[in-house]
């Protein structure tokens, strides 16, 4: 059964299977059809998100284990709810808690799991754990030998890390120690041990008596004072310890983005796929899991083949969506056997709809005036990508250069140097307009070939000094269908190139540019593009119409665990696009008031004007709507904002970053923000609250409009935990705070639904009830934009859904800031004046009734927006065939 509405629940951080059972009655009443769970498989100790999986085939004991899951499964069935699981096929934790990874570390290429991970075995396995070069760490005495009885091994220890030694190298230690204790027995067991028969050795170490173990550990400690012994032992291992900062240059395994603690899985291999999906497939086949969300599909070597295999295993009826960023008008590959995406592109479309495209230039001017110079979005985008390629992904690029030069014929190599090949690869990736293509050794689709060729053409235009032969070599490698001798290297190059373009896009745009280009933070969202603020509502309508054909069952997300800020914070900040002058005047006033708080550092002020613009805008988005009713709100906000600001400054990578922290700069900016939110700064706090009041009011309207559109658009509405109420959260970890489900349950029963978050929750519940009664209308139904007429036509968004005899019309206000300046409510008829909608093709006697207000429209009449919005400024009209109009 396909879902009609999903509810994303973040397990961990206090949320267990048993706690989830307790909220199911509430979710059922809200109108949810499927619980949509974050990863629930065993992850690293203390994991807050579950994407760092250590055992794909175990349900995490930390959240209730298999028994807790069984209780949740039964409760879901009792309430008539389905379950969608988030699975992570791209990577696992590179942690010794992961038994597969521990085996690889201990036995190297001889481990039965050596081919499970994406590791380059032409070199020793790199473990980027050190705080400096190995020689310095060794000289400083920070390494030691350790007896690890819990894991039954000898280990080389570095602070809390105890890296297991290959048992075949234990004699190198034991021979030096002599025969004073258990050494002789261990020497014999170790000499004959292998990956498949090492258990007797492990058991012997575990069962050493306390006194024997203590004496043995003491001799290991003595031996640890001999650097030459430790260095020789280290050099004999299948792994090598490296400075964690060097991972960007020298890493022997594929990582998830820049996270060295997550190692790539080779699920393109049938054996690896089976090993990694055993429990997942069992849960689907048992009927306990109704759908799967595939995390980071673009990270896989061959997403198309993976999805075909997964679909064959789970069957045609299992709901299947992928986390996939679609750029602009990009669509999903037609041959993917899935139901759609997780919905980031819907967030982007909403942002483009609810911002004022006519004021884009005025907002740009205001932003440029504040920062002291005009920021060119495209130049900033290119610069961010170049930084990623030259610095953060230097090692991945070097590997591509080596692969490509190895594929070139001898007559081609003298024509271009390795540096020129590197420059060409980087230039093409910088020009890439989408996350990736999906070519295999069997060929490339016409659409992907167009993407590649256009990227190469743009690269040639921007980098004319790079020899054409370098670009030709890249094109040949990507387009070629090689003969058998070249097939392996060709397939490897294709996979590595396509697995790199996505991370570069994500890290350069979402996690760099979006913290540098701060014109309007609301549109700096996952999968978004700040340039979209100039495209207007027509593009929104065209994208929604395409969804009906492309992914009628794709999720309609407005908040996720990865969004930069909550959906209602974004709704509030959209209003800045309507009044850039008023916003700029307020920011200038606040900056002038706090000019004495700016620290003058040798390299510039802290915060600089651009960061001040960011601070006031981000603060406006998160400013509480109920401060009068909450004690300690200011302290809470100050703490939350400090965490956000640290992330924003480091992700921008301009004056500080995660690997090279400028404590002086960060401290000055944090002190500035803390002073703003100090209770002694009461005059500013009052002025700020007054200054953002019109944006807050417009944001509340945008929030409800966004909700109504989500309820009516093609796809499946997805509710992120707690976002049925006002979601004014900041980026993670702020958006993963515990949710007051008891309060939400009480709120759903509260008949006083006319204010704030309660109204949003009630609108959502009523709309979800409608969707459950007419599922095909809102997924498969045709989508047709409706045009308003009259003096306020630009301020109305309306569209019709039609399936068979069922018809529905959604109507919401757009750009409410100016409408609210009169002081009137949007339910006041004078606001809308002569603005009307025309409902065409009505059958005789047919009428439309608003599900929220019971206002109706009769056959053939022009529908007055003022009348329609007389109770609430939004409507979903459902036809009642054969009914008589009132």
From TrEMBL:
Its EC number is 5.4.99.15. Signal peptide: none annotated. SMART domains: Aamy. Pfam families: Alpha-amylase. One of its GO terms (molecular function) is (1,4)-alpha-D-glucan 1-alpha-D-glucosylmutase activity. GO terms for biological process: alpha-glucan catabolic process; trehalose biosynthetic process. It comes from the Bacteria. It is an enzyme of class 5 (isomerase). InterPro entries: GH, GH13_cat_dom, Maltooligo_trehalose_synth_4, Trehalose_TreY. Residues 4-460 form the Glycosyl hydrolase family 13 catalytic domain. Keywords: Isomerase. PANTHER family: ALPHA-AMYLASE FAMILY MEMBER, MALTOOLIGOSYL TREHALOSE SYNTHASE-RELATED. This is Malto-oligosyltrehalose synthase. The lineage of its organism: Bacteria, Pseudomonadati, Pseudomonadota, Alphaproteobacteria, Hyphomicrobiales.
């Amino acid at each position: 059964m396909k879902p009609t509405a999903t509810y994303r629940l973040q397990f961990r951080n206090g949320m267990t299977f048993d706690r989830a059972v307790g909220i199911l009655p509430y979710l059922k009443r809200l109108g949810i059809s499927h619980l949509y769970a974050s990863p629930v498989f065993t992850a690293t100790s203390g994991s807050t998100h579950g994407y760092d999986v250590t055992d794909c085939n175990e349900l995490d004991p930390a959240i209730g284990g298999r028994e807790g899951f069984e209780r949740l499964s039964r409760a879901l069935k009792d309430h008539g709810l389905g379950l969608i699981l988030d699975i992570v096929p791209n990577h696992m934790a590179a942690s010794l808690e992961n038994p597969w990874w521990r085996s690889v570390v201990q036995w190297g290429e001889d481990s039965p799991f050596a081919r499970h991970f994406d590791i380059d075995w032409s070199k020793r396995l790199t473990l980027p754990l050190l705080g400096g070069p190995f020689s310095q760490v060794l000289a400083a005495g920070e390494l030691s030998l350790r007896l690890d009885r819990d894991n039954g091994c000898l280990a080389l220890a570095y602070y809390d890390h105890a890296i297991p030694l290959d048992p075949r190298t234990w004699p190198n230690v034991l021979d030096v120690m002599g025969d004073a204790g258990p050494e002789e027995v261990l020497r014999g067991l170790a000499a004959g041990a292998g990956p498949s028969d090492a258990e007797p050795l492990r058991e012997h170490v575990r069962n050493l008596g306390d006194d024997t173990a203590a004496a043995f550990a003491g001799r290991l400690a003595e031996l640890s004072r001999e650097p030459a012994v430790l260095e020789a032992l280290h050099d004999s291992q299948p792994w090598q310890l490296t400075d964690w900062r060097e991972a960007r240059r020298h890493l022997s395994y594929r990582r998830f983005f820049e996270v060295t603690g997550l190692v790539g899985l080779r699920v393109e291999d049938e054996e690896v796929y089976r090993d990694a999906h055993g429990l997942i497939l069992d849960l689907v086949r048992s009927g306990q899991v109704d759908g799967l969300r595939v995390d980071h599909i673009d990270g896989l070597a061959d997403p198309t083949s993976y999805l075909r295999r997964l679909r064959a295993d789970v069957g045609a009826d299992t709901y299947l969506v992928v986390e996939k960023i679609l750029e602009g008008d990009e669509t999903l590959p037609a041959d993917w056997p899935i139901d759609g995406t997780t919905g980031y592109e819907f967030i982007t479309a909403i942002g483009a709809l609810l911002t004022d495209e006519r004021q884009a230039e005025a907002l740009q001017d205001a932003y440029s005036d504040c920062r002291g110079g005009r920021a060119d979005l495209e130049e900033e985008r290119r610069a961010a990508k170049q930084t990623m390629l030259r610095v953060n992904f230097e090692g991945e690029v070097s590997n591509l250069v080596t692969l490509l030069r190895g594929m070139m014929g001898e007559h081609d190599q003298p024509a271009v140097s390795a540096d020129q090949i590197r420059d060409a690869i980087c230039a093409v990736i910088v020009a890439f307009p989408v996350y990736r293509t999906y070519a295999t050794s069997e060929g490339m689709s016409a659409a992907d070939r167009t993407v590649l060729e256009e990227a190469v053409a743009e690269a040639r235009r921007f980098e004319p000094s790079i020899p054409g032969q370098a670009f030709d070599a890249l094109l040949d490698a990507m387009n070629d269908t090689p003969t058998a001798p070249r097939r392996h290297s060709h397939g490897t190059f294709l996979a590595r190139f396509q697995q790199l373009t996505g991370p570069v896009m994500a890290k350069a745009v979402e996690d760099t540019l979006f913290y540098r280009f701060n014109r309007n933070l609301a549109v700096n969202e996952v999968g978004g593009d700040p340039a979209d603020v100039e495209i207007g509502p027509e593009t929104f309508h065209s994208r929604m119409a395409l969804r009906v054909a492309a992914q009628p069952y794709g999720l309609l997300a407005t908040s996720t665990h990865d969004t930069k800020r909550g959906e209602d914070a974004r709704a509030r900040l959209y209003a800045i696009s309507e009044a850039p002058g008023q916003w700029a005047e307020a920011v200038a006033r606040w900056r002038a008031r706090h000019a004495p708080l700016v620290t003058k550092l040798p390299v510039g002020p802290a915060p600089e004007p651009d960061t001040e613009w960011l601070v006031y805008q981000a603060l406006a988005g998160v400013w509480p709507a109920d401060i009068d009713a909450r004690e300690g709100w200011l302290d809470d906000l100050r703490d939350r904002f400090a965490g956000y600001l640290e992330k924003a400054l480091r992700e921008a990578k301009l004056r500080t970053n995660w690997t090279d922290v400028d404590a002086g700069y960060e401290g000055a900016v944090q002190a500035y923000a803390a002073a703003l939110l100090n209770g002694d700064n009461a005059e500013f706090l009052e002025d700020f609250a007054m200054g953002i009041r019109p944006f807050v009011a417009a944001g509340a309207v945008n929030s409800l409009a966004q909700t109504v559109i989500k309820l009516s658009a093609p796809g499946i509405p997805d509710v992120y935990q707690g976002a049925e109420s006002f979601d004014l959260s900041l980026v993670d970890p702020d958006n993963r705070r515990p949710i007051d489900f008891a309060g939400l349950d009480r709120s759903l029963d509260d008949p006083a639904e006319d204010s704030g978050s309660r109204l949003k929750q009630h609108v959502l519940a009523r709309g979800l009830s409608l969707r459950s009664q007419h599922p095909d209308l809102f997924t498969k139904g045709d989508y047709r934009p409706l045009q308003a007429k009259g003096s306020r036509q630009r301020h109305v968004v309306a569209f019709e859904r039609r399936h068979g005899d069922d018809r529905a019309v959604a109507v919401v206000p757009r750009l409410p800031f100016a409408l609210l300046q009169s002081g009137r409510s949007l339910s006041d008829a004078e606001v809308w004046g002569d603005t009307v909608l025309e409902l065409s093709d009505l059958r005789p006697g047919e009428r439309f009734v608003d599900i929220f207000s019971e206002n109706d429209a009769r056959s053939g009449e022009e529908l007055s927006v003022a009348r329609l919005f007389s109770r609430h400024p939004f409507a979903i009209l459902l036809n009642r065939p054969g009914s008589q109009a009132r």
